Amino acid sequence: xxxxxxxxxxxxxxxxxxxxxxxxxxxxxxxxxxxxxxxxxxxxxxxxxxxxxxxxxxxxxxxxxxxxxxxxxxxxxxxxxxxxxxxxxxxxxxxxxxxxxxxxxxxxxxxxxxxxxxxxxxxxxxxxxxxxxxxxxxxxxxxxxxxxxxxxxxxxxxxxxxxxxxxxxxxxxxxxxxxxxxxxxxxxxxxxxxxxxxxxxxxxxxxxxxxxxxxxxxxxxxxxxxxxxxxxxxxxxxxxxxxxxxxxxxxxxxxxxxxxxxxxxxxxxxxxx
Length: 273
Fold this sequence. Notes:
Elements: E1 13-14, E2 19-20, H1 24-38, E3 41-48, E4 51-57, E5 67-72, H2 80-91, E6 101-105, H3 110-115, E7 131-133, E8 136-138, H4 144-151, H5 153-159, E9 164-170, E10 177-181, H6 189-199, E11 208-210, E12 213-215, E13 219-221, H7 228-234, E14 240-246, H8 251-272
Parallel strand pairs: 5-6, 5-9, 9-14, 10-13
Antiparallel strand pairs: 1-2, 3-4, 4-6, 7-8, 10-14, 11-12
């Protein structure tokens, strides 16, 4: 993002979780409770700093069911994504897994999250450098976290076959918006529904430019860059959305909005299957 310092620290207090937004120990404790309750399968993709990058899947992935991936925590100052995923998991019933293969990357950049700043501890942007060459991921320009994800791209490709949702925040905004990818000329029901899930919590961004990308009706459409979500769409995910909640608004409201967009993503996947 332009005009921001990637090492500026942002932290907030969450009343919902009774802790600071960068309280990584509480985050992992609460996550472990949900993983255990839901019987999720845990797979360690690698490490960054002293922390694992873990990938979770619903038990017994079934071939006839839609497969979707939800990811969060690529940027450390975008705290409501990971906490929103916890809130979403808290509300989830295991019965869902008989209809859907759900995969999760709850916290991709733990070193940034702990500090409350955008980049990882090495000053790299974990949401850039996802490059596809001859159908394969190339790791030359990727961050530490990105390299691990690219090395597991076959796993992630299968996990996101029917869609990828990645949850981000914008520290410069009071309005919400999304980046979306659909095999259409214009945003369809999928994009509009996910935008509206966020619009229930915040005003939708006005038409114009955000980060040099044209935005219309709160949607930046089919903008292919070297982000994780664009990479997975290139690898074959049928739809993709990157949600952006406004970090100039209250943390708990943002947490609820992130949980709501995840829930809506699941509902739309089931409706379309």
